[in-house]
Amino acid sequence: MMERLSISRFWRIKDLHYTFAYSKCKKCGHAFYPPKHVCPKCGSRELELTIPPREGELLSWTKLYEVAPYFENEKPLYLGLVKLGEVKIMAQIVDVFDESLLKEGARVETVFRKVKEDGNSGLIYYAMKFRLTSK
Amino acid sequence: MVIFPEEKVGIVGWGSYFPIYRISMGELERQWGFPPGTGEGLGMKEKAVAASDEDAVTMGYEAARNAILRAEIDSKKIGAVFFGTESKPYAVKPSATIVAQALGITPNTMASDLEFACRAASEGMRASIGLISSGMIEFALVIGSDTAQANPGDILEFTASSGATAFVLGPKPLSAAYFEASFSYITDTPDFWRRSLSPYPLHGEAFTGDPAYFDHIINAVRGLMEKTGLRPSDFDFAVFHQPNGKYPIKVGERLGFTKEKILPGLLTPVVGNTYNGSAFQGLSHLLDTVKPGTRILMAPFGSGAGSDAYSIVVTDKVENKKNLAPPAYFYVNKKVSISYSEYAKFRKLIKRIGGD
Ligand SMILES: [Zn+2]
User: Fold this and answer.
1) CA of A51 to the centre of ligand 1 (A)
2) What spacing in Å lies between the alpha carbon of A46 and ligand 1's midpoint?
């Protein structure tokens, strides 16, 4: 089964997927992800693409038992809202083997993983996800 | 000793990665009806298994990120990315470009995937030494990464595992360890192969041991010794390709290296044979732990077949770099045991409608 995601759309924004790059407004300082062309706070177009730090803090999380067909191998799917430097980013949390460690304020780090394979013959899409930092 | 061109080049940064999942030898024995102790007979305890969303590219990325952290360089300075793997996610479309893009190395760099069973990444290492010593580039990133395939139920399944190790090579003055010399030994040998559209490799039973692994490693190491005048007693540690927990000790014995020099760099019993990362993981772990002045012999091997022997000397720069990224054993110790059915799900051995 091949769905043909928009190859050009993914390619244009690959750096965002690969690094969680976000927009920072040069005028009002607002930082937001995913990046846009106009600052949603002050309307300025003077935005700077910035790469967030690797490590952040878990703000909240949820567990999904109902997932899109492709993610059936990864059920249950954990989604986390993470404060990464000055931005908040929502993405999958991987390698969760002890749910009790998923606490508000837990340290998490970015990790590079596959997000989707377009069937057996289409493209493979990679992006950043999160996992708990264990030291 | 003569000074060889290799001596201009060293390891500026190193890093490994192993997935958190482990399957025990007992689980594999029960699954396929092997006698208890089969895994132990191979010197194995457990092996690392990649999760559903991991592949050679994602694991190679994490090992490379650790190597770049230790190198303390702007990744744009890397002029070549060599990705050694026999489990590349695409048959055509380089893994090296994905990793190079995600690590901010692109666009002014060479990048390619190399294939030579388990020794492709070592070919990348020797090629990088040439490129750097000639002054063509300043830094190179060499990655060995595999989600090793094995036909379910094959004895190979006891060892074939998942993991990656990467090195940033660069000028000797910046290096945590430098190369003294290297030597390659290559022949056409039918010990192990996988045809293009076949999902699993086959091995030519009679060929895997003596004519392949032992013959090539022994000839590469003896070639290195002859070239340099070094003897086994000059080396503090020896790291050979580690397809299981037994072969490296046996080949060491034949070459005159004691077990004590081999065991510290032997990680296969606890993570499995990571193919292109196999000898590399041993060197990576030694760099995490040894003192300046240590001399290490490394000899990767790849079926088909060939081996390279390197003499590597650790410098005082190693100490400050150790703490800049997680050591190999951080990943070895971070583990969760899984059943064969979870393993089958992760490695996509279960056929489902819409599961492709
Ligand atoms: Zn603004």
Assistant:
1) 18
2) 8
pLDDT digits (tens, 9 = 90+) for B87-114: 999 999 999 999 999 999 999 999 999 9
Flag whether the pTM goes above 0.90: yes
CA distance B219 to B277: 21
Query: What residue numbers bound the domain in which A115 lies?
Result: 7-132
Q: What ipTM does the predicted assembly reach?
A: 0.94
DSSP for B190-201 reads -SEE--TT-SS-
* Confidence band, pLDDT 50/70/90 cuts, at residue B184: very high
Q: What totals of helices (H) and strands (E) does chain B contain, helices first?
A: 13, 15
Cα dihedral B44→B50→B51→B55 (10° resolution): -170
Picking from B58, B104, B356, the nearest residue to A112 by CB comes out as B58
CB contact under 8 A, A114 and B334: no
Q: Does A2 score more than 60 pLDDT? A: no
CB neighbours of residue B27 within 10 Å: 19
Question: Considering only CA atoms, which of B101, B302, B340 is closest in space to residue B217?
Answer: B302
Residue-wise pLDDT tens digits, A52-63: 999 999 999 999
Hey, are the CB atoms on A114 and B346 less than 8 Å from each other?
Answer: no
Q: In the predicted model, what is the mean pLDDT of residues B185-199? A: 92
Assigned CATH topology for domain B5-343: Peroxisomal Thiolase; Chain A, domain 1 (3.40.47)
Asked if A112 and B62 come within 8 Å (Cβ–Cβ), the reply is yes
Which sequence spans correspond to the domains of chain B?
Answer: 5-343
